[in-house]
Amino acid sequence: MGAKRGNMSLSMYQASVPVLARAFKNLAAILTKAEADATARKIDPSVFLTARLAPDMHPLTRQIQIASDAAKGGVGRLAGVDVPSFPDTEATFAELQARIAKTIAFIESATPAQIDGSEEKNVTLKMPGREISFVGQAFLLGFTLPNVFFHITTAYAILRHNGVPIGKADFLGGA
Q: What domains lie within the chain, and their CATH numbers?
């Protein structure tokens, strides 16, 4: 039996910043393995970087860019700070790693004081031809986190499909 814990609630900060930062740190480690695998198997890195699971899906680079945008957009909107814009020009593993590092730095710059209490905050996203409105908790739990994990999972699947020796433990990272 584990130690009994009090009836603590999970804060918006705890459900966002550490979860997202960890996901991107794990993604960075996966990309390191993918680059090493390409080198070891004498595969041009662009083969992995431009790979996609289906013809109508985005390639690896775009999956990572979208995951980055969703994470920094989610944290920035909840924290009430300007979301940095990163140009979607990454074409190498090093450039993707730099984007991931910038994403983690931005996510981790948000403080509990900025994010906690944002459960009922109104968040409006401008999409082509429409707007979508959320309250903060629904935005985090029903949009930001699923969106980030969809694109990181797809990036993982693209690499695994191309023979990169990664597994579930790489996706989940250390305990």
A: 12-172 (1.20.120.450)
